[in-house]
Amino acid sequence: MLNVLRPAMTRLFTPLGKVLARTPITPNAITVIGTVGVAGGALSLFPLGELFPGAFTCTIFVFLDMLDGVLARLKGTSGTWGAFLDSTMDRIADAGIFGGLVIWFMLGGHNPLLGGVSLFCLVTGGLVSYAKARAEGLGLRCDVGLIGRPERMLISLVAVGVSGLGVPYILNVGLWALAAGSAFTFWQRVHAVYKAAKGPRDQGGSPGDQDGWERLAVAVLSRRLSERLTGVAYQLGWKVICRIPLSWARWIFTEVADIAWRRQGPKVQVLEGNLRRVLSWQHDDPEVDGKELRTLSRAALRSYARYWLEVFRLPVIPTERLVAGMHFRGPGEVAVFANLKAGRGVIIALPHMGNFEQAGAWIIARGAGTLTTVAERLRPESVYESFVRFREALGFEVLPLTGGAPPFGTLAQRLRAGGLVCLVSDRDLKESGIEVDMFGEKARIAATAALAVHTGAALMPTATWFDGDEWGACIYDEIPVPEAGTRAEKVAAMSQQLARVFTEAIAEHPQDWHMLQRVFTADLDPARLPVQVPPPRSEP
User: Is 143 among the domain residues?
Assistant: First the structure.
């Protein structure tokens, strides 16, 4: 990324290079001096806790090391040996910087976790450089990557130096970001080489083709690495986001939301397609103002970013804050606890609005004891497991949607025992949902009403939203089981009433509807829809 600054840096160092060109000093000598200065400064100062002096010293010699290329061009001595020496000395300098940090964290800094992160940065930095060198040795281009050596030096030295001046959290954030960015860059380069290595002869290779199998292995490893990076990103979220100032974290998440909104990727397009229905229903007009839609989608993405920010910070938010910050509306809270006290199970059915986890933590803190919910099994598995641990720490019982026993039976048991079940229900996850009218169009939602018909539990629609820096919620009146009709007819009728409540709640707070998936029948893949069995023909 910072390679775009190389021409400007060359112009900056050219006057000094011209002076040195008239002396016996060689470019290779500059390379070695710069490396010795960087590694020596880091290894002598960082272990003593002298972070700012160490970073300042390293920065001076890093700039000196940048002079060797300018001097080689002016003296006309550029060559293979000089390129090899420069690359090798760079690895030694990197080892000095991150090795010094590892020693400091393990000994004087008393932070083995950051020591491990520093070691990880050193290893992944070497892998990033090796991947490019090996690719170029095979005649393939590999000029891609988020974090190259210039970015690695900039992030690490700035974070260390500013931390040495007493600014809190900056070193933690810098090293964790560098670790994630370096790992991602390694994946980018492996993936780029894999794509570059594919040629016309590979498109139809036989199963016994050794090169084809090697490329297949690279593809599998790339996919696995991508999943591992996703898992690492979530772990970083829970470990880092709750440790940095809230204002910083809020700014970062808002900026990420705005970037996603400007890029208008597939998920954003789906979100806007859903919000278009909301605006059309609100205005009773099929024509929707494009500017109003874009403004609403931006607010929805920012709300979604806030949800993730709160998820990562929820473990450190005091319970008193969760309870006091909830602004509840309507008599539904009383009805929920009255049913639970009487031993009758309660089903809280929600749309994807506000913060589900915060609302669950709130109702548990209010005396519900625990609640049972269902979680979609995410990839990689480590992300799903992290979410399960997170929700269990809040007092949730989490059942997997797939990959285990069907959750319906367990949910029914909990309800018959007078328990509380909370289910996000405005999307059909198992292709067995119910078609309803929502915002004037056909949509498919989860068959949550079937639990109420099967167990006699109280089905209570609920909506949550963000209210300034706090939260709002409303538990609506219970949807009763119809007295007449077949079981399927009862479930369909109750699902339609649930969809009507969802429609009204979402229309009241559309910016907090985080629906980035397709729910309307017109948008769904026809293969996902149930087969329509025609009614039997009557005899003439």
Answer: yes
**How far is 384 from 403, CA to CA, in rounded Å?**
12
Closest CA to 93 of 146, 162, 156, 40: 40
| Tokens read off for 92 | 């030694």
Report the CATH number that the domain containing residue 120 is assigned in CATH.
Answer: 1.20.120.1760
Paired residues of 458 in beta bridges: 346
Task: Report CA dihedral (295, 297, 303, 307) to the nearest 10 degrees.
Answer: -170
Which residues partner with 30 through β-bridges? none
Q: Decide: 273 and 523 in contact? Cβ < 8 Å.
A: yes
| CB environment 383-395: b (16+ within 10 A), e (fewer) | bbebbbebbeebe
Alpha helix positions (H), 242-351: 246-263, 266-283, 290-313, 319-324, 332-341
Question: Locate tokens 């909990």: which residue?
Answer: 414
Beta-ladder partners of 472: 327, 465
For residues 338 and 373, membership in a common domain is answered with: yes
Q: Which residues pair with 327 in a beta bridge?
A: 472
Q: What is the pLDDT of residue 354?
A: 94
Check whether the bond before 380 is cis (ω within 30° of 0): yes
Q: Is 62 exposed, middle or buried (0-12, 13-18, 19+ CB in 10 A)?
A: buried
Instruction: State the pLDDT at residue 326.
Output: 92
Please give the pLDDT value at position 8: 54
- Going by C-alpha positions, the residue among 301, 290, 526, 539 that lies closest to residue 431 is 526
CA dist 362 and 379 (Å) reads: 28
Active site residue 202: no
Q: Rounded to whole angstroms, how far apart are CA atoms 33 and 62?
A: 10
**Whole-angstrom Cα distance, residue 392 to residue 408?**
19
In terms of domains, do 13 and 146 share one? yes
Of 273, 297, 315, the residue at which a domain comes to its end is 315
Residue 210: per-residue pLDDT: 43
**Domain count along the chain:** 3
Q: Give yes or no: residues 298 and 157 share one domain.
A: no
Burial class (CB in 10 A: 0-12, 13-18, 19+), 39: buried
Same domain for 78 and 146? Answer: yes
pLDDT score at 100: 92
What pLDDT is attached to residue 530? 54
Residue 289 counted as domain residue = yes
Check residue 60 and give its pLDDT. 86
Q: Choose the catalytic residue: 65, 68, 86, 90.
A: 90
Positions in the chain whose pLDDT score sits under 50: 1-5, 200-222, 225, 531-540
162: domain range? 2-202+209-239
Is the same domain home to 194 and 341?
no
Amino acid at 451: L
